[in-house]
Amino acid sequence: IPLIYINIILTFTISLLKILIYHSHLISSLLYLKKIILSLFIITTLTTLNTHSLLTNIIPITILIFTTYKTTINLTLLISISNTYNLNYIHNLNLLQY
Amino acid sequence: FILMLSLALGTMITITSNHWVTAWAGLEINTLAIIPLISKSHHPRAIEAATKYFLTQATASALMLFSSMTNAWSSGQWDITQLTNPPSCLLLTAAIAIKLGLTPFHFWFPEVLQGSSLTTALLLSTAMKLPPTTILLLTSHSLNPTLLSTMAIMSIALGGWMGLNQTQTRKILAFSSISHLGWMTIIITYNPKLTLLTFYLYSLMTTSIFLSMNSTNTLKLSTLMTSWTKAPMLNTTLMLTLLSLAGLPPLTGFLPKWLIIQELTKQEMTTTATIISMLSLLGLFFYLRLTYCSTITLPPNSSNKMKQWSIKKPVNTLTPTL
Fold it and tell me: What's any GO biological process attached to this entry (chain B) (predicted)?
């Protein structure tokens, strides 16, 4: 049913825009990244379950596996940033301008 | 050492992929492997570079996955060479442009190169460009030529313009790589083999420059001026490789530019060819400034040979004589 599909595409686009236009914290952009990939995961499960092909069922599981890699690296980078910086704001990322 | 292995593994996975998920997986493995390399020295600049790199690459890979998914929804194909859905083609070009560092998505690239050490910057600008270019090559018949050519022309322009005021050598090399990427992507819809050729030659030249800069540890223009004391032969070969990067005729860097201009004129795009060659003059200025600073200037206090470093010289002497 295309209506559910349009809804999930909307979540994808809105979270993508939220990444590009961030508020003040870095954590929010990471959260919306996670949300993007979750929406993609839902789309893949829908497509693979509607077309009853057995080979494409592997795709959502592998996506989940790689997202776990990504999120761990996310969080380690966050920790290292909070160790070296005082705050978590995006305005602090201006060291490399010079 | 494991990181290098995983880098090689990731690139191999993307190169030998015919399914979108394997390409995406290889790209993710590459980003995973490079981020600890970038942030190895626990300097705040390095960590900041790592976060910027990570954010941009993660969004780009998510966009790529989304384009493959819309294509799969509309056509049922997860094959890389069968991109039939036009909006997914657009999204894919945008995603790969973010990954490569084409304009208008180039903003992360100089800062990330500046924050990483010279060898990791080398890896970033040559090895990490390889998988997205292979994806571009695989899908080159279904890409959007107008978007690509506009992005390429803008990237050549921006690479030339913004490199004019830089004093840090890594940022200069970042803008040179942006302009070379523009040269690579302008020809991809017409003759993909030329993009491969430019990529190989560009990677050769930049590896030699990075390694020579690594041996003399020149991060600023001022240290370039005093580097002739350490190894004079290295300086002369550095000058030659810089000039070949600029694309001067007797050296090898001119070959891809010549072939690209020839191919563009075959496709009746002579205005773009002239615009490109005019804009590469901007890049020529800072290449010339680099060569001038490295070879012709003398330091205020004369100092003879100070120390001998271990140098990866044979790469340097090969590239001008190719």
Answer: mitochondrial electron transport, NADH to ubiquinone
* Identity of the residue in B54, B62, B63 whose CB atom sits nearest the CB atom of A77: B54
Question: Could you say which of B106, B125, B140 is where a domain stops?
Answer: B140
Q: Which residues contact B15 (CB under 8 A, 6 or more apart)?
A: B26, B130, B131, B134
Whether domain A1-97 has CATH 2.40.50.140: no
| Same-domain check for residues B149 and B269 | yes
Give pTM, 2 decimals: 0.82
For B116-164, the pLDDT digits (tens) are: 887 888 888 888 888 888 888 888 777 778 888 888 888 888 888 888 8
Sign of the CA dihedral with A81 first, then A84, A88, and A91 last: negative
Stretch among B60-69, B158-167, B220-229, B296-305 having the lowest mean pLDDT: B296-305
Residue spans of the domains in chain A: they are 1-97
Interface of A with B (CB under 8 A): 5, 12, 16, 19-20, 26, 29-30, 33, 36-37, 40, 43-44, 47, 51, 56, 59, 62-63, 66, 69-70, 73-74, 77, 80-81, 84-85, 93, 95-97
Same domain (yes/no): B132, B152:
no
* Averaged confidence pLDDT in chain B: 80
Supply the range of the domain harboring residue B106: 1-140
